[in-house]
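REQUEST ID: PR-0412
SUBMITTED BY: lab tech R.K.
PRIORITY: routine
TASK: structure prediction, single protein chain
INPUT:
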Amino acid sequence: MAVTARDVAKAAGVSPATASLVFRGKPGVGRETRDRVLAIARDMGFEYETREPTQKTSTILLIIYKRSGQVVGETPFFEELIKGVSDATYRSGYHRLSISYFYAQQSASEQIKSLRSVKCAGIILLATEMLSIDVSQFERLGVPIVILDNWFPSKPMDCVVIDNQHGAWEASRYLISKGHTNVGYLHSKVEIRNFLERRAGWHTAVQGVIETEGNPNRFIARVGSTTDSAYHDMLDYLDTNPDLPTAYFADNDVIAEGCIRAMQERGIRIPEDVSMVGFDDAPMTELVNPPLTTMSVPKAAMGALAVKRLVSRIQGETLGEAVRISVLPKVIERESVKPLEVTLPKR
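STATUS: complete
OUTPUT:
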């Protein structure tokens, strides 16, 4: 019986789709895998006519979407996320990562036209600031897409996200475990899904624990999303809200840093008077005074997972299903939390 491509794929431990890409000289297969498949094909006597992969479709396109630019910027968080995408792209056998910025305030048609000129095998869409209504224009580009750092209920598309709700819950429960029964929340004025999910996680954790006095939002302070805007907004908040909780969970480390500076300027000691937990584990968390307890996010791993899923989609190794991959943050303990007398609430 004649040897088939499926037989070679099984012997090589790859999918038939991957073997087909190798035999047709298509990109998207790593050199080591390609060489192994071809060697096994020769040993099994499988006849094929192969060509070297064409370069024009061996590019992955990373689109960084900016609606306000107040969250997505040249920060260590996004630099590490992008590095994770870049490193995984080359490990996956692709020859080039092309990075393009898409600005919501500029002509969409002109930007889409420019993106069409990039010959790519697939797209990683960094969608932190994106709304669901923005996604369709990218779907029309006609290549596989994986969404990074966001998801949309109305769009059954592959995505890689932070489990924000669980992370905020974990941060808040950590403070509660340290004896803080009044855990406030420093909530960004910029409404993105990440921060809304973190608010839900905080609320779930503190519900029934904090003393709200009939006002569930008593200890929520709305502040800007940059260090300076958070600092100034917190100064204004302190002018009218002298009654503070014993601890705060902040939407991210940038907000925590700005608010800590404002509190210290008003004579509030961290953590002696108010404890603080941030989110993201940015490099500056070890440099602030005191070093900030925070939630660590595996940023490079998120980028790599997005590339891995995209390559599977490009190579036809999925069954057509859409998946949402959530990474779990973990508490990094430093010096911004003061333990109080622990009285754990009943669950």
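NOTES: The domain at 164-296 is CATH 3.40.50.2300 (Rossmann fold).
REVIEWED BY: pending
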